[in-house]
User: Fold this.
Amino acid sequence: MTRRDGIRAFVALGMPKPAQEALERLQEFLPAGRFAVPETMHLTLAFLGTQPEPVMVDVGEALDAIRAEPFSLTLRGVDLVKAGRRGVVWVRAVPDPALAELRSGIRRAVTDAGVHLGRERFRPHVTLARIDVRAYGGGKSVLADFLAHHWAFSLEPFTVTGFRLYRSTLSEAGAVYEALAEYSLER
Assistant:
C-alpha cells in the first residue's frame, strides 16, 4: 500500500507469550487452513479500515490519552463461524466489563480522531485459522471432531496491561500484521 493510499489498521490486544504458545499447540490439531501466526495473534477491539496518515497520527494521540485499569482476561471455548464455504476457527474471550469498557473507550477515541466506525456486534475472540469448510468434508468429519474435542479449551487468565495499534497489509498469503504502537494501561 502506498503512502497516498493510507494505512489499513486496527486496534487490538496482543497475546502474551504463554497464550501464544498454548494457542499454537491447539492449531496443531487442525490439519488444514490458513493459520494465524502465533506472534501476531490478537483480539481485535476496533477495525479502522484504511486511513490517511494524518488521521493515523491523530488516532495515535487519541489512543495515547486512554486511561484504564489493567484487568484479567480469560480465553475459553473453541468455535467455528461459517460464512458459506469459508469459516473461521477461533477461541472466545470470556465476556468482561473491563474489556467492554476498554473497547468503548477506544472506539470513542478513534471516532473523535476522525475515523468512522460502523456498528458491529462485539464477539471477542482470537482467530486460530481461516478455513475452506469444503476441505473438511463439509464440516462433518475432521473439523467436527476437532470442535467436539476442543470446545472446552481454556487458558489460565492473564492480565491485560495494554493494547496495540496494528497495520494490516493484505497479500495473497493472507494479511500480515505489524504493531505500529503499544499503549500501556499502567501509567
Summary: The radius of gyration is 17 Å.
